[in-house]
Amino acid sequence: MNTFTITGRCIAAPPPTDWREQLALMLGAKPRRIGTWAELGLYGAMRCMADAGETTLPQDARLLLASTRGTYVATGLVLEQLRDDLPMPLAFLQTQPSQLLALLAAQFGWCGHANFVAGAEHEALLRLAAAQAGEGGMLLGWVDEMDGGATNWLRLQPGETMEAGFIPASSNELLMRDARHVRVTAMGVQVCCDA
After folding, report:
1. What is the pLDDT of residues 10-22, one digit of tens each?
2. Domain harbouring 131, CATH code
3. Spatial separation of the C-alpha atoms in residues 102 and 115, rounded to whole Å
4. Which of 27, 74, 84, 90 fits a 20 to 30 Å CA distance from 5?
5. pTM score, two decimals?
6. How far apart are CA 181 and CA 194, in angstroms?
7. How far is it between the farthest Cα atoms of the chain?
8. What is each CA distance from 146 to 29, 85, 100, 115, 167, in whole angstroms?
9. 101-137 per-position pLDDT tens digit
10. How many domains does the chain have?
11. Counting beta carbons within 10 angstroms of the beta carbon of residue 64, is it exposed (0 to 12), middle (13 to 18) or buried (19 or more)?
12. How far is CA 151 from the centre of its chain?
């Protein structure tokens, strides 16, 4: 059983209407040459890290990113371009989910293990995180640009094993704003809210 303390979060599904302006303020400039999917991910991860009071990610932390459809819109654009000719290079790069991982590594001054998982449910990604987390914890995110967009992130730190107060959690409950601790057991994911 692995127990984590949730030290930061960003739950934006859908994100606020001015999220692009907020991202530009956080970065100090409007991002260039990245697609909407990567922008959403960068916005959510930066908000989550700010909520955790961190500007850099420890080198022994892990970064896990999941998406139901990934870079669906950019991929559709590239397929359209393929009907007439070769796709534009920047359009093709925007189809690569790993682009966001590289952006996050540069933004947080981090060089470590990062993974993108397509179609992972919250519980499945959390199980993977629990199996891989080191002393630096985990930055865990789910990004999708369909249906208004979503960028949900949790900053997880290894926590002390607690016995009382945990309740079974669905995928949506994992992202509850009042959940402060999460653990993975053989029976599933459980959360604990501070009193």
Report:
1. 999 899 999 999 9
2. 3.40.47.10
3. 11
4. 27
5. 0.89
6. 8
7. 61
8. 25, 26, 17, 21, 31
9. 999 999 999 999 999 988 767 788 888 888 888 889 9
10. 1
11. buried
12. 7
Give domain status of residue 166, yes or no. Answer: no
Q: Which two tokens stand for residue 172?
A: 């949506």
**E strands within the chain?**
2-12, 62-67, 113-118, 138-144, 150-158, 166-168, 179-185, 188-193
104 in any annotated domain = yes
Helix (H) or strand (E) holding 128: helix 122-132
Q: Which tokens belong to 6?
A: 């949730």
Domain that includes residue 139, residue range: 10-161
Residues 6+ positions from 42 with CB-CB distance below 8 Å = 23, 27, 31, 34, 100, 103, 104, 107
**Whole-number Å distance between alpha carbons of 116 and 97:** 7
The token duo for 2 is 């692995």
Interatomic CA distance for residues 129 and 56, integer angstroms: 19
Residue type, 9: R
